[in-house]
Design brief:
Blueprint: H1 2-41, H2 49-73, H3 84-104, H4 109-120, H5 133-167, H6 178-215, H7 222-240, H8 254-263, H9 268-279
């Protein structure tokens, strides 16, 4: 019985050895292939400064053309919202809606009372047919401050979104290029610094423009006088029609009509001030 048991154990060990060696061979071959693939991906030997610089420029061009430019120009298929242009378009539409809402503040009774009270404190200081310039300047300055707050928020959000889209999953675009992966943090840093510089430049330009506007409100834009003229024509027509509501044929902007109707029952000086602020 012992001999039979020994023979049986020998057969089992023999079978196990025959099973293990082919598997070991396969695993070793698979590992060798992985090592060869990794060796093939290693960058070539860059022994001179010229060779290293050439390779650096090559990778920099690849990063700009195949990663950054692709993110700038990519379009959404309607299912994956990765379009940078579309994201910025949404931000600007939100900005437009906020500015539109702030403009509507001029149409409210509360704002008309505010203007009337501010002007009342200046009556007697100059001829009644002139708008009190300090009041006009202050009220325009307040609206410009609102514009500055919303515009800086828009700028910061747009650049933040741009950075996110440009740097999102950029490692996947490197295709396991070891040298490119090593340089990727440097390229990211350069891209972020460039965008931050541009953001700061735009902020500074806008800040200076608003500072100049607040210092001395002035415009040569024909829209300003055209709207003032439309308002006077609108009031004249309403008086001629004895209060019957009818829009002037030259007045097609809904906000213009809303402003004209909202101030038509105020004192002449308050009317002029409100329309001047709205138009400016």
């Amino acid at each position: 019985g012992i001999d039979a048991l020994i023979n049986r154990l020998a057969d089992l060990y023999s079978d196990r050895v025959r099973e293990i060696f082919p598997k070991m061979k396969h695993d070793i071959q698979k590992k060798l292939k992985e090592v060869r693939d990794q060796l093939e991906k290693l960058p070539p030997s860059l022994e001179t400064a010229s060779a290293r610089l050439t390779k650096y420029y090559e990778l920099a061009e690849f990063y700009i053309d195949k990663i950054l430019k692709q993110r700038f120009t990519s379009s959404s298929d309607g299912r994956h919202p990765i379009s940078l242009i579309n994201n910025l378009h949404i931000k600007f539409k939100q900005f437009e809606n906020v500015i539109h809402g702030q403009s509507r503040e001029l149409f409210t009774d509360k704002y008309r009372v505010k203007v009337r009270d501010a002007m009342s404190a200046c009556f007697g200081e100059q001829l009644p047919n002139f708008l009190p310039h300090p009041v006009l300047k202050r009220l325009i300055g307040e609206k410009l401050d609102q514009l500055w707050t919303v515009a800086t928020l828009l700028i910061n959000e747009c650049f933040h979104k741009t950075m996110s889209i440009l740097l999102e999953n950029d490692r996947e675009e490197c295709h396991d290029d070891i040298l490119l992966l090593k340089l990727l943090p440097l390229f990211r840093h350069i891209a972020i610094d460039y965008l931050n510089d541009k953001k700061q430049a735009i902020n500074d330009q806008l800040k200076e423009l608003i500072r100049l506007e607040k210092h001395d409100p002035y415009t040569l834009n024909h829209y300003y006088m055209d709207t003032i003229t439309k308002f006077k024509d609108y009031l004249a027509q309403k008086r001629a029609e004895n209060g019957v509501k009818k829009s002037s044929s030259s007045t097609t902007d809904y906000d213009d009509i809303l402003m004209f109707d909202s101030v038509s029952n105020d004192d002449q000086a308050v009317q002029d001030m409100l329309v001047s602020i709205y138009t400016y």
